[in-house]
Amino acid sequence: MRAFAVAVSGVLLVGGCTTGGKKAAAGSGVDAAARSLLAQHAAAVLHHDRTAFLAGIDPSATSFRARQSKVFGNLAEVPLAAWSYQLVRTGAFPLPPTADGTRRTAAEVRLSYRLRGYDARPVVSTAYLTLARHGTRWYLAGDQDGSVGAAGGHRTAVQLWDQGPVRVVRGAHSLVLGLGAARTLRGYADDADKAVPEVRHAFGSGWPGSVVIEAPSTLDQMAALLAVKPADYQDIAAVTTGEGGGNAAAPADRVIVNPAAFGELSAFGRQVVLTHETTHVATRLSTTAHTPLWLSEGVADWVAYRDSGRTAPEIAPELAADVKAGRTPTALPTDADFRSTAGNLAQAYEGGWLACRMIADQWSPETLTAFYRAVAKGGTLDARLRASLGIGLAEFTTRWRSSVEQELG
């Protein structure tokens, strides 16, 4: 089995979306009470004030209260620099009436948090919380009622601390938040610490120079964090989530590890995966919707394998088998070829790697990194290739096909 490492565009840590309905009037009584309650709840998290945290939770919501008590404890080691809530709207979707007539509303909320010493920008996720009124006071009463509006996309994003007590391991260039054994988490940190200097050497500075890794204990937990089907990611060793688009400030990337696939890798394979993922962190500010996946994934593999000493057939065995069978690809991999369920996923990665390595070898490594940054600015790929390499897309593809056949035939 080959395990892959991928980058995911958009903020996959954000679950749910704003759909339909009208926001409650700004300053309304319910909204004002909700904002006050959320502000008190956020302050309790930041100040590790368990009493204040539980004071905002409905005493009659015993199951929710018990779960939230565990979540509070699960957060104990997480080095939070900021934690806040923004009320998007109350009345996000209808809730069924209660037997005792308790007044309730479903609130759409955005949670923002930053990790101390690592996040230049916050991670933002969406939650749907049930608020209940008893007497004159509003309480948090649930976060599972989003299932009522699931058909409309009203789902609360799952966070690592929702899944168990979070252990924290710090490396020279890394921070690992995980649910597994400390020894396993230390291994992730050690591999990331080796990866950062390699990536800095290949892609330069201008990025944070550190990596935050989230390490759940199971594939199902990883899938829950990404809001994907576990079966679609069983061969994916790790995923980098973050916000692309050339933002002025460094985004808060997360490398999320699939412990099942990652654990089957050799020491060399594990190092390749985390170097690949660290490259995605480094290139995030230079990655936009204009960047084809063969380039973003190819550069990440180029950095990961650059000094490996492995031959092309060793790095690209699936594509090599195709070439020897007379199935040399006629075009560069498409973005669809990089879907986790694509039948030619391995060949897509290998083809992207060979394309990027060809640029580095036939032009220069500096040309490759400059081309990567140029593509993110927009314009056609053909025009960017002509400006950077002096040849258009058709000739580049022809050279790439020849290189694939020469390297793997």
From TrEMBL:
Domain of life: Bacteria
Name the record gives this protein: Peptidase MA superfamily protein
Organism of this sequence: Actinacidiphila yanglinensis
